[in-house]
Structures are given as C-alpha cells and as structure tokens.
Amino acid sequence: MSSKALIEIKNVKHAYQTDAGPLPVLDGLNVEVAKGDFTAVVGPSGCGKSTLTRLIAGLLFPNEGKVFLQGKRVTSPRNIVGMAFQNPVLLEWRSILDNVRLPLEIVPNELSRKQIDDRGYELLAMVGLEGFEDKRPSELSGGMRQRASLCRALAHRPEVLILDEPFAALDAFTREDLWQIMHELRHQEAFTCLLITHDLRESVFLADQVVVLSDRPAKTQYTLDVPFGRDRDLDDLYTPEATEILRDLRYQIQVAQKRVDEEIQEIDK
Amino acid sequence: MNFLKKFGIPIATLIVFCLIWEFIVWINGWPNYVMASPSDLGPSFLKFRWLFLEYGWDTLWRTVAGLLLAIVFGVVVGMIMGFSRTIREAIYPLLVGFNAIPKATVVPVVALLFVGQHDLNTILIAFMISFFPITVSISIGLSTLEPEYRDILLSLGASRFTIFRKIALPKTLPEFFGALKVSVTLAFIGTNLMEIVEPHGRGLGHLFDSGKISADYPLMFAVLIALAIMGIGLYYVVIVLEKIFAGWADRDVT
Ligand SMILES: Nc1ncnc2c1ncn2[C@@H]1O[C@H](COP(=O)(O)OP(=O)(O)OP(=O)(O)O)[C@@H](O)[C@H]1O
Ligand SMILES: [Mg+2]
Q1: Which CATH topology does A1-77+160-167+191-269 take?
Q2: Beta strands A209-213 and A220-225: pairing type?
Q3: CATH code given to domain B40-249
Q4: Whose CA is closest to A82, among A7, A149, A9, A177?
Q5: Which of A104, A179, B233, B235 is least surrounded by Cβ atoms within 10 Å, i.e. has the fewest?
Q6: Which residues of chain B does A76 touch, with a Cβ-Cβ cutoff of 8 Å?
Q7: Tens digits of residue pLDDT in B87-111
Q8: Angle subtended by helix axes A142-154 and A96-106, to nearest 10
Q9: Cis? peptide before A217, omega within 30° of 0
C-alpha cells in the first residue's frame, strides 16, 4: 500500500453562523490519517472536535480548505464511514441484533437476510455480546450498549470508523474493557479510525498517532507518534516511557488552553 | 388470576359504583326526575332499544370519522412543525389560540356554515376538538429526536424520508398513542355538542335532547351511560392498537 493518506484534511477553516455573528471554530486545520492507522484527536472542550468528525462524514462542508477521503474530495455523505458517539442511541423498539443490522438496511449491498444476520452475530460475538442478540437495548448495561453501538458502526464494513468520545460516559473499569475490545476489533476488522477523546491515557493506549488541537478556533497544535506496537497491554501505560508521553501531551493541552503562559505570568508577579 | 385481575377488578368496581349510586338515590328519596338510579336505566334502554342502536351507530361513526380526520391533520401538521423550527414558532400561537376557544361557541358557527349537512358538521366539530393533542405530540416527538440518530443515518446516505420511516415515526408512536387516548374522549364530546345543538340532528346527542324536551330523565341518564360505554370501548381499541404498534415502550413488568 502506498503511504497516501485515507483521510486528509487540508487547511480547513470553518465558522458557524450564529445569532451573535460568525463563530470561527476551525482555523487552518491539517490532519492526515494513513490507511489502517488509528488516530486520536484531543483538545480543549468546545474547540471543534465534533465539527471535525462531521466534516469527514460529509455532514458539513468547510468554508475554506479541503477534506479528502480515499483521495476524493468529500462533497456529500459517503457510506464508507461508520460513526459512534458518546450517546449510544440504540433504537429501543429493535432487538440488539436488529440495531446492529441497521446500516445494512440503508447501504446498498448484495447480502441475503441470512448473511446480514450472520454479520451481526459475528460482530456481537467479537465484542462479547453473544447471547444478547434478542435483548432490548434497555436490558443492557451502559458498557454493553456502547459495544452494540460499535458493532452497528462496523456492520457495513466501513473504511473509516469515526468515534466521538464513545467511552466518555463509562466508568473507569468498563472503559478499560472497551479499550481492549477496540484492540481486538482492530485485529479482526480492517478500518482506519479517528477517535475523539478527552482521556489522554485512552489516546496513548489506542492510537498510533495523537493530534492535539489548539483552543477554538482550532488548528493542529501538536502531533505525537505513539512508539508502541500493535499489541498493547494496559500495563504499558504504567511504564516510565508512557508516563513521559502522557506528561508531554498534558503539557501540550495546557499550552492549547493557553494556561502555560498565564502560569508563567503568575510566577513573574 | 391474570384474567381475573384484568377484567374482574374493573367490572367489580363498576358494580360497586352502581350500588353506591342506587343507594344514594334511595336514601335521599330522590324521584327519577331529580336523579335517575341505575334501576331506572334498564327499562329505558329496553323501551328505546332500536333508537339506541341506530343513533349509537350515528354517534360512533361520526366520532371515528372526526378522529381519523384529526389523526391525518394532526400527523401532517405535527410533522411539519417537528421538522421546521420556523414553522413551529409561526403556527404554535395560532393552534393554541384556536384550541382555547370553547368549542360550544364554534358549534353554531359551523351549523350555519353548512346548513343541513348534519354528518359533515358533526364530524367537523369532533375533528376540531380532538386534533390538538395529536399535533403537539407528533411535533414534540420529532423535534426532540437526538441529533446522533440523524447523523448516523445521514452519514450512511439515507434520505430524510428513510430517517422518518426508520426512526422518527416509530420513536414518536408512544407519544402519539398517549395523545390519541385523550383525543378519543374529546372527539366524543365534540360529536355530542353538535348533535345536541343542531335541530333535526341524529345520534345519541339528539336522543339526549329529546329526553330533555319530553322530561324523560331516565332516558337522559341512559344516553349518558351509553356514551360512557362507547367511550370506554373506543379507548380500549386504542389501547390494543398501542400494544400492537408501540408495545416496546411499555416497560412495566407487573
Ligand atoms: N450547529 C452549530 N451552530 C452553531 N454553533 C455550533 C454548532 N455546532 C457547534 N457549535 C459551536 O462550535 C464550537 C465547537 O463545537 P464542537 O461540537 O465541534 O466542539 P467539541 O470540540 O466537540 O466540544 P466537546 O469537547 O464539548 O465535545 C462550540 O463552541 C459549539 O458551541
Ligand atoms: Mg464534541
């Protein structure tokens, strides 16, 4: 495979039109994600991370700059994208299996009903939800619902998986379970992933590349290549090397929030 | 046990209610032109059984027709209001204002508008009085749809209609049926308002009016009971439809 990026965001500027006038959200953003890579995006709250995901999904178009998927300019939604959010938004009137099948009811495909069901069973088994196929979403725990939501995002074998803080509302232990599941999914399924997160440990544990965005209007503030291989263990997060990386990221976030300068000024006084 | 709980308890309650009613009339020594007692109703029903059947049918089909009209109108307007915030804000005051007008005052207006068209007039009033809850429920159901649903489907290339059919419509059904239960009773009120006021009308409202004119108080009470029975019947039809189409929203496990 060539090193050509699957997701390419070039010099993107975007402002929302609000009652109080235009609100600049992205200002000269550049992000590249190679095929098969896993990129985590971190940044201060409200800096425009969700806006970035909407640009890639073709739900929103930038005022300036260009967004490319597979080398093609994004001009409308493309069904090579799968999305999952902090809120798992499962459909309560459908069973878990039928929720997972949803993308295959919309994306044109040649699969038979049985093949579609099998795809659902396969994915649910991968995330440890076998036996729950016929349950209603309300019968599942928050972590299980989020797993089902991941399965739905992957049902149509998307090239790009976009995750907007999918683990943010979960407790620490459930979150770590889901991190492991993400690794397993990556072994089984071929996708390129863009993960939005507030959790630096999560970004280092899951991603090959961490992009730090600056405060709004956001631009790329810092990019870090995570020096770990594909096979990772939670213990890796507690090595001196990982601690060093996390400290580095934390510092960059503070710079992004413009806290560093203020602190120095405080000391000067 | 389950069967007993479901039907036995309501029926027992009904019987107790009638006994208390009978008892209160008896202990006060009210003659039947002050307050009819349940034992007066039987003979009344028997005497006018054919009129009850004929007029009952009139009232029933007019109510159902008005209700169907209210459903069509309410769903369409609710959809438009649910999808467009501008339109919602534009027509909400109008709808609320219209709903606030006592329908008894609209009755003579409609009666004059379409003189002699008894069926049409009655259906119109039943419709006017019952569409509001349906409109509001649909518009709220649609406007409170989480944006994530929309994003997931749109990103897969789904059309707005697909989003409506696969998500918005089923998600709104529980609210819709909740509103329909209110609308059913309102529609009955509307039908009877018209039937009572309009001369030469038909339907149970008219029978009530004749009872009044001929000072046949047991007949008037019998009409009220007949209306109550029909209202209960239609209400349960809605419950059954709700169980079929929106049973998933029912989470209590008693
Ligand atoms: N449709 C919109 N219209 C107007 N302003 C918007 C719109 N969507 C987002 N914004 C604003 O743009 C800014 C960036 O929003 P965005 O959701 O992309 O941030 P975010 O980085 O995902 O935030 P968070 O960390 O809280 O999830 C915020 O200030 C938000 O209020
Ligand atoms: Mg966000």
Answers
A1: Rossmann fold (3.40.50)
A2: antiparallel
A3: 1.10.3720.10
A4: A149
A5: B233
A6: 157
A7: 999 999 999 999 899 888 888 888 8
A8: 20
A9: yes
What is residue A5's predicted lDDT score, i.e. its pLDDT? 86
Domain limits, CATH 3.40.50.300, in chain A: 1-77+160-167+191-269
Say if strands A160-164 and A192-196 run parallel, antiparallel, or are unpaired.
parallel
Q: Which value, to the nearest 10 degrees, does the dihedral of the CA atoms of residues A63, A65, A68, A72 take?
A: 90
Q: Is the pLDDT of residue B166 over 50?
A: yes
CA distance A83 to chain B (A): 6
Q: Does the structure show a pLDDT above 50 at A2?
A: no
| Ligand 1 atom showing the smallest separation from residue A51 Cα | 18
Ligand 1 centroid to Cα of residue A25, in Å, is: 8
CA closest to A90 among chain B residues: B149
Per-residue pLDDT tens digits for A27-37: 989 999 999 99
Order of strands, edge to edge, in the sheet holding A220-225? Answer: A81-85, A160-164, A192-196, A38-42, A209-213, A220-225
Task: Read off the pTM.
Answer: 0.82
B157 and A87 within 8 Å at the Cβ level: the answer is: no
- Chain A CB within 8 Å of residue B160 CB: no
Only one residue has tokens 């009137």, namely: A93
Sequence spans of domains, chain B: 1-31, 40-249
